[in-house]
């Protein structure tokens, strides 16, 4: 269901997809409120057999086995980093690897430790199926995660994942995210 709009976008002639999400920060250098450009992703959902491309392949959307080593477009990433610099956002801009878990519950401490060991910098509950289908359709993709909370990594911690905190940080950073995307769209001009 979440990927249906991506196929509609493709049929309407869309060439570039910008995806955003809220994510928990796994990287100890990330701060709540940072914007992380996604360089790559880990799909534990997909590794468990829940890939949105399962089943008969629709050739009009793309080939059976799309390459995912270039899921996030490097040219779009470069332009987005330029936009961040021009907007003086570099102090809260990061790059990293996003990992998707299916949710709806937040991650366990053991899961967070595993994800760090795998090289993930942020974790969330969305984005990867949409990106997978977008790449299957040949769309160029830019991904952006808003770090809305730091994951809990210690069994002795009194902190807990809190949906209210996620919503609060999303509201606080909404204007910056809107400015960044608008600036980037200005750089892209009529090419979308």
Automatic annotation (TrEMBL):
UniProt record, GO biological process: nucleoside metabolic process
Signal peptide: 1-24
Record flagged with keyword Transferase: yes
EC number: 2.4.2.1
SUPFAM superfamilies linked to this entry: Purine and uridine phosphorylases
Enzyme class: transferase
A Pfam entry, by short name: PNP_UDP_1
UniProt family annotation: Belongs to the PNP/MTAP phosphorylase family.
Name under which the protein is recorded: purine-nucleoside phosphorylase
Protein source organism: Oreotrochilus melanogaster
Gene name per UniProt: Pnp
């Amino acid at each position: 269901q979440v990927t249906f709009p991506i196929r509609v976008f493709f049929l309407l002639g869309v060439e570039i997809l910008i995806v955003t999400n809220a994510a928990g920060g796994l990287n100890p250098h990330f701060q709540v409120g940072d914007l992380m450009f996604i360089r790559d992703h880990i799909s534990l959902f997909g590794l468990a057999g829940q890939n949105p491309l399962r089943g008969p392949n629709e050739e009009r959307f793309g080939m059976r086995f799309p390459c995912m080593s270039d899921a996030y477009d490097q040219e779009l990433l470069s332009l987005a980093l330029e936009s961040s610099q021009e907007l003086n956002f570099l102090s809260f801009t990061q790059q990293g690897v996003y990992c998707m878990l299916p949710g709806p519950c937040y991650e366990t401490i053991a899961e967070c430790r595993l994800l760090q060991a795998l090289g993930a910098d942020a974790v969330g509950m969305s984005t990867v199926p949409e990106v997978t289908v977008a790449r299957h359709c040949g769309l160029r993709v830019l991904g952006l995660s808003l770090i809305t909370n730091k994951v809990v990594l210690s069994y002795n911690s009194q902190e807990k994942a809190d949906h209210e905190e996620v919503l609060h940080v999303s509201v606080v950073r909404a204007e910056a995210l809107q400015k960044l995307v608008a600036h980037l769209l200005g750089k892209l001009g009529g090419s979308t």
